[in-house]
Write the structure tokens for this entry.
Amino acid sequence: MTQTLPLARLIGLALPFTAAYLLSELIRNINAVLAPALRADFGLTPSALGLMTAAFLAALAGAQLVVGPALDRFGPRRVLLATLGLAVLGALLFALAQSPAMLVLARFLIGLGLSACWTGAYKANTLWWPRERLPLVNALTIAVAGLGALAATAPAEWLLGLIGWRAMFLALAALAAGVALWIAVAVPATVGTTGPQATTRVFLHPAVRAILPASALCQGAWIAYQGLWAGVWLREALGLPPERAAAILMGLALAVILGQFAFGLLADRLARDDRRLYRLTFVLTAAFIAAQFALALGAAPAQGPLWALYGLFTAGPILSYALLVRLLPPAVSGRAIALLNLGALLSGVLLQGGLGTVIEALQARGWPPAQAQTAPFLAIAVLQAAALLNMGLRRPATL
């Protein structure tokens, strides 16, 4: 086995699916920039904005139960070509929307259209790369896709001022169509690898029950905090000025990309057997949880470095994808990946929405803003620690 990744395979097979994943990250995060313009044009209330976000995430989460088996049966090329068509339709509808209801419907369609991007990229990696290289290839995939989240910040703000949000979504529709065309032209057709096991049987597999709770809770916290609550924490709980908070969040996004590259390379060199990969995933996930305890209890001057560590150690929960695929039969890898995605998305939806309710309830009882945000932050970290303990206790006997 060579030590380098074949360039032709990276360009011809990995990049088209990574581009789809990058597009999904861009569209998922772009609402933060568009929110003021949409509120001005449609008079949207905060609850309406929340409904639009929830529609997108609900579509992503619910579709995983269908996407996983479809990937195993039809392969990622056919599934992505079908779903990206819905993303193009949803983006066009969003660009032409004349009411809040049309915005919600459009975001729901976009969510359905992008539902296979993450899962499909990982499934494609399992088909065309040796299993011992999956930690590195998956890490490269998510690191490059992370550029989509970065593009949804300052670059999107600049483009919004230049052409407006409707033209932006027309451009996104064109990008989705272009990615679909790229996949159709560059990616060879694959034969389905579906096996006799149903998704429920995959869920009951000992490796899934060991890995899924910690991975889902950690990824859900990452989705909730990077997407919304980290900024609220920095501005309201710690009283940092918006410019300082924005700089820390940019550092967080960059640290996520760096962490995926660095720890993907580490896993590729030191954890090619399943036992070592299990240990590395456990240790990095423990470090991710420890970073949250440090953030909740740390002073304002330490927040920048601590959020950077938080971003670096997101590699731990992400290594769970490569680990789980290596512990299950190849015929059900799509369903296994989809189950991890489903857990992460449901956890993210519940935490993103539930944190606001908890914080408001605590403040209504007279808690200061800092304490009202610190308590749930610590509670989430405690739940993650319990889930990680479950991962250690349920470690498969073969490891």
Notes: The mean pLDDT is 87.
